[in-house]
Amino acid sequence: MKDVVLDKFTGLLKNLIATPSFSREEDKTAGILDAFLQEHGIATSRNHNNVWARNKHFDASKPTILLNSHHDTVKPNAGYTRDPFYPHIEDGKLFGLGSNDAGGCLVALIAAFMYFYERNDLTYNLCLAATAEEEISGKNGLELLVPDLGPLEFAIVGEPTLTNLAIAERGLLVLDCTVHGKAGHAAREEGENAIYKAIKDIEWFRTFRFPKESEMFGPLKMSVTVINAGSQHNVVPAICNFTVDVRVTDTYQNEEVLDIIRQHVACEVTARSTRLKPSSIDKDHPIVRAGVALGKTTYGSPTTSDQALLSIPSVKIGPGDSARSHTADEFIYVNEIKEGIEVYIKLLEEVIL
């Protein structure tokens, strides 16, 4: 890759880093991305703070591959020793908030999209989507945009994976559970203690093993993480509330897991959301085979991304290291961006040409 090409996309990333783009506050970075693409002759569309584009010779009769990454960031944590909005390169590292998660992936995907943009011999269409609110799983990000994009065959989701292939990702259910008892005076052994009633269900969550287990992740995991009950020491509690964190594997759908839980426990169970679905792609899918041929490893990702909002096969891959995400003095190696661009192009060449 020519240095001038790498400099162009490194420069775009620097511009994004220098522009705060916390979730729900991505208007300015959306404008930067929109302007960058248009300056390079690419027609864009925008919905809220989501920017998207199709390849020049888009053909509705062909299947479409979604290239997606996000341009929102978390807020910088208190451990920063550098200005999080000052992008600078030191010892081959580009520092700045969002550099690793997921700015490097986003600019590398844009570079790959632009590489193929003018080709008229592609067997697939390409649709680039730079989306908002990923860090909060917001409803005005990819979920809002997908209906605008038309039919999609599969997706490449740009997240830092050291350019290895995350071919499965856990979904997430957060359950609010309520057990009802009857208040009474503790000294007279009155009432019905809601805490004691809750213990049976809590123990079920701790010990139950779902019959289907994932090849990538093993058993589905459930953890009781919050318990609230009682008002004072001498009053038998009438209500006990507890929260359960459920990490759903690719062997189940969220609604299926919820049904199984409700069949086994006596408490009231309310899911905060069923939107964050588990995702996976077949090991024999062409894009996975292409990655393996490049020497990339496959694995199941423990972290949640916008894959959870897609109902199509998807693979998560990108430059950078997930271990650096959300850390103080976040950075990505410039060479990682270069590798990311090259890997995305090589992957797509194996599928669309």
Question: How would you sum up this structure in a few lines?
Answer:
This is M20/M25/M40 family metallo-hydrolase. This protein is α+β, with helices and mostly antiparallel strands and 353 residues long. 30% of the residues lie in helices and 24% in strands.
Description of the structure:
This is M20/M25/M40 family metallo-hydrolase. Residues 167-265 form the Peptidase M20 dimerisation domain. InterPro entries: ArgE/DapE_CS (IPR001261), Bact_exopeptidase_dim_dom (IPR036264), Peptidase_M20 (IPR002933), Peptidase_M20_dimer (IPR011650), Peptidase_M20A (IPR050072). This protein is α+β, with helices and mostly antiparallel strands. It has 2 domains: 3-169 and 278-350, Zn peptidases (Aminopeptidase), CATH 3.40.630.10; 171-273, Alpha-Beta Plaits (2-Layer Sandwich). Helix content is 30%, strand content 24%. It contains 8 helices and 18 strands. The chain has helices at residues 3-17, 27-39, 99-116, 142-149, 194-207, 254-264, 286-293, 334-352, and strands at 45-47, 50-54, 64-70, 88-90, 93-95, 125-131, 154-157, 165-169, 171-180, 184-185, 221-229, 235-236, 239-248, 268-271, 279-280, 298-301, 314-316, 331-333. Strands 1-2-6-3-7-17 form a 6-stranded mixed sheet, with helices on both faces. The chain has a 4-stranded antiparallel sheet with strand order 11-13-9-14. A 3-stranded antiparallel sheet has the order 4-5-18. A hairpin with a 2-residue loop joins strand 4 and strand 5. Helix 1 crosses helix 3 (99-116), helix 3 (99-116) crosses helix 8 and helix 7 (286-293) packs across helix 8 (334-352). The protein is elongated and about 80 Å long. It starts with a helix and ends with a helix.
